[in-house]
Batch of 4 targets.
Target 1
Amino acid sequence: MPGDRKSASSVPPGLRTLLAYRREWLVKDVVAGVVLTTLLVPQGMAYAELAGLPAITGLYTSVLCLLAYAVFGPSRILVLGPDSSLGPMIAATILPLIVAGGDSARAVALASMLALMVGAITLLAGVAKLGFIADLISKPTMIGYMNGLALTILIGQLPKLFGFKTDADGLIAEIGDFFQGVADGKAVAAAVAVGGTGIVLILVLQRWLPKVPAVLVMVLLAIAATSLFDLDRHGVGLVGELPRGFPPLTWPDIRWDDLGPLFVGALGIALVSLADTISNASAFATRTGQEIRGNEEMTAIGAANVAAGLFQGFPVSTSGSRTAVAERAGARSQLTGVVGAGLIVLMLVLLPGLFRNLPQPALAAVVITASVSLADLPGTVRLWRQRRTEFLLAIAAFLGVALLGVLPGIAVAVGLSILNVFRRAWWPYNTVLGRVPGLEGYHDVRSYPQAEHLPGLVIHRFDGPLFFANAKAFRNEVTRLALGEPRPVWVLIAAEPVTDVDTTAADELEELDESLNERGISLVFAELKDPVRRKIERYELTRTIDPAHFFPTIEAAVAAYRAQTGARWTARDRPPSQDELSQDGSPQDQPSQDRPSSRD
């Protein structure tokens, strides 16, 4: 039996699903695959052009990533493919490496090598079980990043929607060039009509008839309009006939000096792809009752990117919208993606001219409506109402994308997330506690200003680990409390939230205890966790801090203090002092444990 389990675990997850395939799933998977293909084809072409690549590469990419995920993917329902959030990142990476005038063959080679690099990064992350990397971007910064990305995509597609091109680089320049082009009369009325109608049609159908394939309906109507009104004669650009057949296995031909810039872009793309994949996998696993396997998902994403890169494709991610379409269509396994890939191959081999009359503004409409779905304005408003500092993080991430560019924007988003974690550890919430009649335990005096206290005893809670960055702030805060009037006899640290003490903090504690002892004040600890207590003993802090001043609970410490001094609980005749509230008397950023705040 152990040997059987070991051999079963060596089989890729997708194949394990296919080996346990149920006959009753077949019809539903085939139908879902047909429905999915109607979305894969137009979106694949649109997102390829968004990435600065020929439309056909979007179809090559879709086929290979679907087949690879069918073998290595642990989720029975996730759908991979070209993604609107990755398109601008791919373009920002490869376009600066292409000589003026453009070279589509070189662009494809660069994008394919980028996919291979993304694949290698995510494969290594999966093997090393580095799923936590996807958590480097907090939700507020991701909201801001996606809002900035949505605006960048929208502005970048407007010239295409209006039937002309610009050479601007950067959001501000693109806005200026777009309005200048319109003012110069470059806009094509027929293109505006096709693109604008396409946007309205997609949004209306998605809102009022969600089961109808909105993108397919719009694409078919746009092709019909081309035939009826000769749109190409009115200045509307068309996709044209796609190359027949499928590309051979190809190793990208690039220069050595391209590897550095491509690797930087690959890191950012891999991070966004992993975050998107883990998020979608979690959401759909919850809905379908499947188990989340983060490391296997990363391995599958890596395999899909490698497969795409070897066949003239570009980096891919999971798609929430396409996965939702497959789910609504009744998908039961990865066979849905295999059916979709097979239908695309048949189209490329037998019907390469199927979309030759598709107007370019229609593809712009597909991309623009996808960009709208990336933005999360309600989430931004919620941050403003609930937590102002996180709202500011979202705005900073948004400005990073909008003003600096897509790739610097992801660096800004990651940097802000890490700095926010460090900020919270650097300045954790801390407060004074008191007794509230009718409530068990001891409570924050900010929430209960009239909480009772024992004369000569200050109960201080510090909500975070003690380490090099905040140890001095902790020492200063305790010193301020000790110098308050009337002078305390004990400063009792409610240490249950203190999860660690490093050597720098240990030195600060030793100096703090010695300085308090000189003033006749005792530093006392209650509810210190056993692992932290063992570290304090290892640091030999008990040489200065009396071992009798460590208590298992606050109640035990209070009882010992009352037995020593005879103090009785006394109601406050004044609000808490500024020293008791905070360093500067202002509310801290983190809400107290007793009563959550509505905003910072």
Note: The CA atoms of residues 23 and 286 lie 25 Å apart.
Target 2
Amino acid sequence: MKIINQESAKSVPVSVLPLREIAGFPVRPGLYDMNGATLLQDGVNFTVHTHSGTACELLLFNRGEKDPYAVLPFPEEYKIGNVYSMIVFGLDIGEFEYAYRVDGPNDPGAGLLFDRDQILLDPYAKAVTGQSVWGEKQEPGCTYRARVVKNNFDWGDMPQSGREMSDLVIYELHVRGFTRHSSSGVAHPGTFAGILEKIPYLKDLGVNAVELMPVFEFDETMGGREVNGRKLLDYWGYNTVGFFAPNTSYTAGLEYNREGTEFKNLIRTLHENGIEVILDVVFNHTAEGNEKGPVISFKGFDNNIYYMLTPDGYYYNFSGCGNTLNCNHPIVQQMIVECLRYWTVDYRVDGFRFDLASILGRNEDGSPMNNPPLLQRLAFDPILGNVKLIAEAWDAGGLYQVGTFPAWKRWAEWNGKYRDTLREFLKGGTWAAGEAARRITGSGDLYNGHYAGYNSSVNFITCHDGFTLYDLYAYNEKHNQENGWGNTDGADDNRSWNCGAEGPTDDKEVLDLRFRMMRNACAVLMCSRGTPMFFAGDEFGNTQLGNNNAYCQDNEISWLNWELLKENEDLFGFFRFMIRFRMNHPAIRRDLPGAVCGLPALTVYGNGGENRVDDGTAALGILYAGYDRKRGRDDVVYLAVNVYWEDVNIQLPELPKYLDWYAVVNTAGDGQSRFCYRCGERSRVDSGFRMRPRSVAVFTVNGNQ
């Protein structure tokens, strides 16, 4: 017999024969250290574990049927420790689905919820049935089940990416929303295949990493409601059903027993085009909710192990979603590590962004830990040695760890302080100038002890959670009425500005200002030390009509309207230019060897001159300089930001006589809708420069592209 679907164990000989028969099937004890269901040459290995359960049954179903056609109790002698394992011979994986039942004590006050009649999904299922058609709820009485997946995908010999975090430009997108709108022009809207069709667009834009919102199997129909005639779904997907299974409703076609093939093809093609793939993973809670929620999997196997429980058996809710995974319990740790290894090896994923990652550092009683074992284990795991680990360094329980997240020089963070500070400063909050300077230059005050500073900070002004970039400068207040909660959901602290009119307007002056503010945000983001990230559609002014919490909006509110790409072509061109500009100037991204011209590596300028930034600084300057060995010349960039509502005269740093300043970017434009200038188009600038109100300018020296 041979194992034929394990990436790391292809063609490993396993000489085994049936030893007995159960329910008419030849069986024998299985491979106990191989969790889940594994296809062998002549059968399937089923391995599952429960700490407090007293008996376990394997259920086999014909595809789509409610009742099992076979029930195979695990013999007691097929249990070692807390692990049940059995090889079942003669199975055709295309003809069945499987699940489990686990018996044991039922004492909710002690956190024990065993029910011998409850059908349970395998926690290690590689494919989950029941939600293959987006938005269609399972029929009453149906339960989640799993399929056995045959893994024969050919990855070729492409090496793993070795890019530094600071060399990435991350593009966050929702798999469905990216191409679901009719204007996307793809043949398979709302799917992995739809994204594949847009790879030429991503290359043209210039991003080299996509961060996909949750792609693990989730139930978008949970909590479904109707508001103002719209069907609302759990669109974002932050309610995981199965951690090892791709969301089958994101595929263009059915993939029975080869689930993940379309997604793998997308990842391989992205890699071939120089684009990394980062997954947004949700290990802080599951779709099972609190004591009122369904029993899908973990509650039935070991509720008191997988979840943080109060002394009387209720669920701690540090996630804001009903329950909290008990991440630092050894059994849960093992599952998370195996999960991340699986996606790294079998899907060749380049990184993971951990939703509400501070929960991963809480003890079983909910208290924060100084050295959380899970976070340390992930930081030093050999298989995960080159993948990016990015923490959303806060949770819904009030734990905020931006700049203090346990990192071991491996974890980067979504820099929420960058977002908040730059939003405040760019709309005219001069009192934030000093902190804005620190954020733009890599947040060294937060990350010097972590991961070389600029490799720790993921800088962003927008993401899926909150206003889009257009809405940030079109709305003073959130407008979430369509969510059905009376506009009470979503953040109130948006630090936004409508530029003089709330929402849609025909006022040209207001619109011109909005687009200038968007260009300002883009220019500063791309000229900041750290890793820039922005939300899909920001590059062409996509709007959610003021909704800053569109988690339930599977409609035009959330879907990217690609017609805006044509309408706002100039904004797209500006984003594309700034991304390339960043890539062409390593002095922005990291410290270089000393510049031949003698300029310092990094200098901040304020109203009072060099390194003099105070609460009244309206015009902020950042100088980057160093010797670029690759090009054999100095790389010099000066970023100037005027957040004042009037013109401001700035003095550019003094250069050696053989160098001159050239204007590369002016977000206020030249009066002819030109905001950026390529080599040969740039104009030489004397030491003084007059900045228009609320504008950003970028300068380089002769020889710099």
Note: The mean pLDDT is 93.
Target 3
Amino acid sequence: MRGRSFVSATTVLVLAGATGCSGSSGSQDPPVPAPPMRLVAYDGCDALLDGLRRATADKVGPYGLTDGPPMLALPEGDTALRKGPQSAEAPDGAQGSPPQHSTTNSHEAAADEPDLVKTDGRRIVTLAGGELHVIDPATRKVAHTLDIPGPRGLGPDGEGQMLLSGDRVLVMTQRSMMIPFERPPAPGMEGSSKPVLPDEPVRPTPTTRLTLVDISGAPKVVGTMTTEAGYMDARQSGSTVRVVMQSRPRIDFPTRDGRSDGGRGEDEAVEANRAAVMKAPLDAWLPSFQVDGGNGGAAKKYRPPCDQVSRPASYAGSSMLSVLTFDLAQGLGDPQAIAVTAEGSTVYGNGKSLYVTGTPPQPYIPMPRRSSAKPPEQRTDVYKFDVGGKGRPRYVASGSVKGDLLNQYSMSEHDGNLRLATTTSRFDPGNRSSQSSVYVLAQNGARLDEVGRVDGLGKGERIYSVRFIGPAAYVVTFRQVDPLYVLDLADPRRPRRTGELKIPGYSAYLHPVGDGRLLGVGQDADETGRRLGLQVSLFDVRSGPRRLDAYRLPEANAAAEFEPHAFLYWPATGLTVIPATGARSGGGEALVLKVEGDEVRRMGTVTHPKDDGYGRSIQRSLIVGDTLWTISDAGARATDAATLKASGWLPFG
């Protein structure tokens, strides 16, 4: 769920081999103006409907809309090097202050991200088995359990995700759109190779549910919201939560299996589908959000008002990207939705600004012309919203850059400028013309204009990870040679490459640990690139990047390689906890390391009791006071953070 990012389960960052380079400058080409990516409002509902119909008809093929549902997203999280790892405690002297505790490993400290586990030091709240469990860390007991109604989702967080604000927990669950089963063929048609679809079109059921729970005492549901829109991601600042949704047209196409009922050809099928689009009502595009405030009143249905829907100036999209706003202290009510008729893929926020990116839609091209058609230029469109207040987000600017983003870490706002790292041709394994770039965009009225860039990173490779830290950037590309590039972005108009590191193996995740050092979690590898097992490396990036130390666990891998929320670093002691699995462990355990000076040393492991082989893999870890808590679907274990002596096991269910 993250940007969330749209990636395979083995997203990795590679650091390989040791060379240095200095003084490498950025592109010599002058910055080019961004395309006209400002958003424009529609002149009323009639204009909105006409624009949506025309944009959708342009994309329709013989099978209906061919873009399909969005990919599943993996959540991400981290913290900037200059800010150090996240921790939280109440103000000094506050009566009843909770013990010092860790918080979710989010990209930006001012924008909390949804996760499986949350804590405020007094309570640990986690999702497992479709239930919300509230743990009292002082008594080491599960204080309360509440069944969470709604769908069980797919993806890395099938149990859902949640956010915590005071005594309120917002739980987000999602499932994929309903797919109709093929009904049995008619008599005499048993040998037909064509699937027989239902006579009546199947309408999708609500796919996303937000459940607001009050945990001031025994947990109780105090509000719900359901929608057919797909959940993308969310960010929280204080009690204000912004939820980003993506929806696609809900149109009953007459040619669901590539042919019309009259046996027409492809061209006629396209025309029939386009005719259905031109007759569809506005509600086929505008998502609805049904809210039950939990006060005993009737549920209310909300849609984005026509005057709150915009489109990019250069094109009109058929999908709808919606941003909802909730104040958890006030409960669920009008989500104050705003919408953009565009695709969405990646979300990045820092508390003041919210960025959503997507790719421009492509028109349908008939089969005879596809092989000769020029491939569309890879571009990423960026929409910036002001979310500094508590009300509706305010659109402020848009821009566009060449290439594709890996995930939300490919973006960072610094001193008012947005930095992005992209790769061209990243999805074509056989294409060695790919290369990566870092762009710096500055806001100019309603546009995000390019003011500087560095090109030519990892030619023939693609980006595996990006880290922006203050005025510096670290970009890792990989195919067979594994360089980590260091970039100086202090002058946004003249960014330059200042260093490069190559060593065997790679790091899929980098975490700042203070004093100009980064901890990398990934895989060891031989000279052929064959992976050998988990590798945790400590790097010095203050000048020319170099590796200081490494710890290896053969035949193992770590969840943090693709899910940063699974990683814990506690700055007070250097404690580092990494859930790991492998052939030797036979299941999941938490590897506990300690970073001291220029060394990484192993303290031990934490395991959960064996059951049927499922549910005991440790997913998250956190610190409350002097106790290390590890969480799995089976339960929670309390362990002394200094000695790793177990002090309690709390089974779920």
Note: The chain has a mean pLDDT of 80.
Target 4
Amino acid sequence: MDLSPHPLSQFVLKMHSRCDLACDHCYVYEHADQSWRGRPVVVSDEVLELTAQRIAEHVRAHRLDFVHVVLHGGEPLLAGPDRLRLAARSLSTALSGVCVLDLRIHTNGVTLDEKFCELFAEYDIKVGISLDGDRAANDLHRRYRDGRSSHAPVLRAIDLLKRPRYRHLFAGLLCTVDLRNDPVAVYDALAELAPPRIDFLLPHATWDEPPPRPDTGTSATPYGDWLLRVHDRWSDAGRPMGVRLLDSVLRTLRGAGSLTEALGLAPVEFAVIETDGSLEQADSLKTAYDGAPGTGLHVAVNSLDEMAAHPGITARQQGLEGLCATCRSCPVVRSCGGGLYAHRYNSADGTGGFMNPSVYCADLKQLITGIRDREERRVSIHQPPLSESHLDEIAAGFGGADAVDRLARHELTVNRELLGAVWHESPHDDTGTAAWETLAGLDTEAPESVDAVLAHPYLRPWAQRVLRGGSDAGPIAMRGVAELTAAALLRAGREGTVTVPTGSGVLRLPTLGALVVGDAAEARVTGEPQGFTVRVGEREYSVSHESRADAAWWSRRRFELPGWAVALEDTDPWRDVHGYPLTARLSATASEEWRTGLTSAWEWIRRELPAYAPGLAAGLSVVTPLRESTAEADISSAARDAFGAVAIARPGSPQTLACLLVHEFQHVKLGAVLDVADLYDPSCERLFYAPWRPDPRPLEGLLQGTYAHIAVVDYWRARRRTAPDAEARDAEVRFARWREQTAEAVDTLIGSGALTDLGMRFVAAMGETVANRLTEPVDADALLSARRTAVNHKAAAAAKD
């Protein structure tokens, strides 16, 4: 377990410590911590400047590409436009040329006017508004001190943000759940305002001060039931906007990262700067006890590295290992993540108060399992593998999270069918039969854990190897079934033992890692409350949640990046399907270099290629490191039968890594589309010129290359806009070349006579995207150079033919 602190990338900067409303559910004023009483009312110039300098210093030290800062309170608008401008200017100046700044403000909105909006437009400050529903729902809590309703002023603020001039600033609405309000009425009132996102929050509570549960009847999970009704209304409406809590459940159920600290196992990487310059933990801790968020650190004295190393911060960065035994054994823990840290507090637990399940434990389990069951029914009963609208999205070269998620679900179905074929066509021994029966039981009791293992990209290469037959097919089949079962058992947190035949001296546990076991015929894998053990002969290996694992254990490195969970796969022997030499097990240093590179590349994709980001985050779960080329060439690959994985030799820059990721994921997407749709006549044996290859390609190869080059065109389109002057002309030439040659390839496909009707529609949509790029002006010299290169390439290819 990596105990080193993560760098901080998210900050809450308190602008004003008082509020113009008197909301009776406010965690700042109405809960245990009352430190606001001793804070300065308004943040000082000095604290603003110091904060900006500290963040810039931290960013440089850790080479961060992106930081998020939220201006908060109290009510931050009370600080006034001049003070807010100073905060924005200080942060923008300090971080200019250092990293991208995502600057936001969260407000009750009652005093928002055009003067504030002009300031926010100047500094691109996104605005989130608190609103609990219609007037009756909102007025339960959000009133002025004299009892007046705040509903009308908030609606005026939202109307202002919805004007065309300011619409891009509207970040969304935040709503605190109250069981007395009808969930459908609340959702409808918020949805009617057409926000880009809604965020539902559970009211802050602890085991010492449990949440209100008025008129809950016989239900033991009223908050879970309330949110499920919102989910159903949202889904029935076609999910017209993001709902952060519900989206996070959906994402974590498919193995992706959460969008909120209230769910999932991703490390928390943020700090609060109070109006007096104190560095504190999350505000939600104010609900636990007086002084709970405090660290004793101050922006004038302490670095953000010191803040990152504070025990209260690192305690929230340990993932599964940082949870209590009850949470670790729960089948939905990878979605729930133990819930919000503050909600775990119990002063009577004797361990510091936070090693407990959430006070909303039953509600969260009800919500997660309810959404899981609804999604399974939605996919199996109502949804074809890919709807027409989703196919059109993907055909254009992109595809959002829902479209790619449908592909992933279909690929999981294919993997399940392959596993069934392996079982039915292979001879069974007692070990394999016992493993299969255990897996079948887990599939009923903990299906999400089984799905997570069966979605492993390298299951299909193993299954195909078995189904091709051969003298070793039987042993390979039984070993693989046992490995999958053991991994599912451990992911589910269940106690029990699986006997796994071993080969090549390594015990493979797909999605988890591998254990070096030497010359043993079998290993007994036993799940335990604190981790698991592996017994090989007289030797026992222990992998514990509480301490560092046995040195022989090669844990899979999984990185929770903002909005994307991705693993490095350097242990699975079936990853050898990419046509290039693989790396051996990476060192900790090399793994960290990959984390840094992927973090930077991902931020670049989100910023410069945002149309590709949602689909990539939904469908790309594994990066397999390749051995670097001695010729210093960039190497990458996507295997047709390894959905969810790409293989890459780590390049020299995050921008190049970003290009390789989006390029190869295009192949991954299209490969999955070809599993559900017939786009061409497979009997076509003609070969076609491909502008990116020295050799002619079969029709599917040309289709794959053309589709992938839509992303290449967009990469160079972004690079010519963002590259340093010394590299900008080369980017311009490459953009000019690839857009024309990709358009030429589209024409070749359409003229091939081998596309089906659906294939013609698909390729026509590809062509529309490329045609849009052809309308953009390009420097005449760059265009001439691009065309000269294209002509030379075609002539060279023809000479070899």
Note: The mean pLDDT is 91.
